[in-house]
Amino acid sequence: MTSPPKKPWSGVFDGATDPRVEEFTESVSFDQRLYAQDIRGSAAHAKMLAATGMISADESGQIVSALEEIGRQIEAGEFVFRRELEDVHMNIERALIERIGEVGRKLHTGRSRNDQVSTDFRLWIRDSIDGIDQTLLDLQRAFVGRTKRDKDVVLPGYTHLQRAQPVLANHYWLAYCEKFARDRSRLADCRTRVNQLPLGTAALAGTSIAVDRQHVANALGFEGLVANSLDSSSDRDFAIEFCFALALVAEHLSTWAEEWILWSTAEFNFLGLPQAYCTGSSIMPQKINPDVLELIRGKTARVVGNLQSLLVLVKGLPLAYNRDLQEDKERVFDSFDTVAACVELATAVVAGAKLNREAIAVSLDRGYLDATALMEYLIGLGVAQRTAHEIIGKLVRQAMEQNVPLAGLPLAEFQAAHKALDKKVFEVLGVQQAVNALVSDGSSGPKQVARQVALWRKRLG
Ligand code: ARG
Question: Looking at ligand 1, which atom is closest to the CA of residue 26?
């Protein structure tokens, strides 16, 4: 058995670490996920050290190729991460030193793990933002992809989950496109703050080594340099913002999932879910359950919980680095993994679901979805809104009592309600007419929706 590796800080210590402390403080079990970013960051740092004359070009070359080799080894699953080396950063550095000896011991010149961790994490989040943006784009495409086949379908629109006004199915699809567009723009905005280089701020005070931070920033594609080393060492805003943006994605997915769970019930029967995304029951043979949608809704809880954890984690931490910050990674990884999986599955469900046109058409007769259209028609004839509202409200009540839709009332009752109402009301009533009457920008009117569909098709390419 080989003796346990010496800690990089062993100089001042007079003995070994309690193994329970090693177990308690380690992060390599989860931060090994940062290995590719750690290697990228270290290679850029080594090249900068050579460019500034701190190490020779040959030394930098040795470091970079050894790092690349280590990267390949990790990729191939042949690298053994050692818990007693605490984290991914020290594991990789130790492997480097084991390979190239003394030269490897120069890599950590002018940096600290504090700026190293932050750099790696920012690189990882930047990569993840680019990844999730692509999956959100696919999801938007799935919604827009439905617009041809669902072009003329009218659905009930709800407020308070009570029937309100008729809307086009495509208006629903584009509503989700808008939400995910905002999510993407939030992520893009967050990316600019993530994409600031901390490396070179060292532990908390900066370094007396003449590092060239801009050199590293250029090599790693950072847009700028974090300006204050104390701020940099303590800052996790970038990770929290990322988790917030992900939490809103999860919230949007959760709304959509809930809606489609309802729509797929026998009570609504608006929607047939693709069976590949449903599961059955172990006791009730007839069951086809929307478990994927339920889990998308349910997993929102952990994504929101992760955000909450991070906010509580940083609350009241004094400047600058505190070990508490190590607790950030798992929350961020979990939010990303969860949301990425949810978006991917949502995309498949959106693409594969079928609207039950007949069932929807039958259901549209209920709920007086055309009452607002009739009221607005009356306003158009010169009646004040409050008065028109009351008049149509009374007509709805009469129709309810007779158990008929508004169009089922005899003409005489319309004329009695207001003298301006004549047989033309029957050209206004009915869900199709009510939808056709919508004209405001952003409404569910056929022209407006067609324009938006065209815009979205163009936008998503
Ligand atoms: N593994 C730790 C982390 O992820 C590194 C801590 C480095 N800093 C320190 N002062 N111990 O945060």
Answer: 1
